[in-house]
Amino acid sequence: MTRRFCRRGPFVAFGILLSVVCWPHFADAQSAPSAKLSVHWEELTAADFRQGIQRSQGTCLLPFGILEKHGPHLPLGTDLLDVRYAALHAAEQEYVLVFPEYYFGQIAEAKHEPGTMSYTRAIQLALLQETTDEMARNGCKKVLIVNGHGGNNSLLPYFAQTQLEKPHDYVVYVFNELEPSGKGGPPMKSSMDMHGGERETSNMLISHPDLVHMDRASSESGADQARQKLPENVYTGIWWYTRFPNHYAGDAVAANKELGQYQMNWWVDAIKKAIQEVKADDVSPKLQKEFYEKSTHPLDTQQ
Ligand SMILES: [Zn+2]
User: Fold this and answer.
1) Is residue 94 within 8 Å of 276, Cβ to Cβ?
2) What separation in Å is there between the alpha carbon of 228 and the centre of ligand 1?
3) Ligand 1 centroid from CA 126, angstroms
4) What span, in angstroms and rounded, lies between the C-alpha atoms of 162 and 176?
5) What is the pLDDT of residues 264-292, one digit of tens each?
């Protein structure tokens, strides 16, 4: 609004006044490219993008969310919204480019709930590969995937591991911690908390409080129904549904901003440290290159 007013001001009599009012804005505009470079990939011009890649030292973040039910009270995009909140705040502290919204992960177990976007496994892997390939082609020689969704816990290490199939001129890193482990912080009130419960709801009270419907938090049960009788070391894909058919695991009633702020501070700081470690890592690119080269003639490898 201010700029439009400045451009269109028709009266000469106001000229001096307007130049005084508008001057700071012109000054901002002139110094903006070097002083304040957005961390959002989609907000940069092509020229500023080049500068962003340099400033990030070729390290880029790919925050990875999902669209799935989160209990009766949280939005479908909870994981996407939270991981982007944490990743963007971390990127502001330790400059890296942040890829736009990405939510094409593993969520087959929520296909019975409204609003779930569940892509087939071939598409998940192919799209992620093309995305990181394209990021690398644009200068992201280190791609740090920041996971925001527990259903990706097997997908992402598998994706990173299979980068060794054939040569790539970039390294994929995965940061897969969503919450602080161990003691410290405000005490939890609920004894079981796995999905849409006290922890996740508390995070949303910090990142997007206007999207949290606390009055609906107890309208469905998030209790463990424990319907499957198998030992813990035997895995089935249906395990989640047998325990939590409402796609709600825990009790969000106890959620509070104090816990959310503690967790979010931890998450932002942990991502920031991961970015710093990845930027400083010169071993992985070098040895990955060596590995690719050796893998073309394994019989020559010295034991
Ligand atoms: Zn979630």
Assistant:
1) yes
2) 23
3) 23
4) 17
5) 999 999 999 999 999 999 999 999 999 99
